[in-house]
Recover the amino acids of this structure.
């Protein structure tokens, strides 16, 4: 299981909704360094977050799908790329 945290909630205009998955010590140790965003099928960004793994679908599967998100993109080389 990859650890991840949602850092910005674009649905509710919040900075963070506090959702975390996985080992909180891992997240707090700064190992959650791969930035991602979750989008719906129209390309609308719903959430931003960070993960301990740059190729994990867990943020989408465990969190984003409940809000209608269908795509996860990780930030690589200065731009977001769909996984």
């Amino acid at each position: 299981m990859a650890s991840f945290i949602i850092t910005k909630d674009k649905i509710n205009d919040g900075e963070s909704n506090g959702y975390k998955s996985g080992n909180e010590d891992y997240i707090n140790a700064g190992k959650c360094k791969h930035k991602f965003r979750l989008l719906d099928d129209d390309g609308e960004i719903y959430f931003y977050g960070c993960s301990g793994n740059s190729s994990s679908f867990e943020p989408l599967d465990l969190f984003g799908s409940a809000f209608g998100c269908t795509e996860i993109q990780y930030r690589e080389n200065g731009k977001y790329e769909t996984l």
Summary: The chain has a mean pLDDT of 83. The beta strands are 4-9, 20-21, 34-39, 45-51, 71-76, 79-82. Residues 4-82 form one domain.
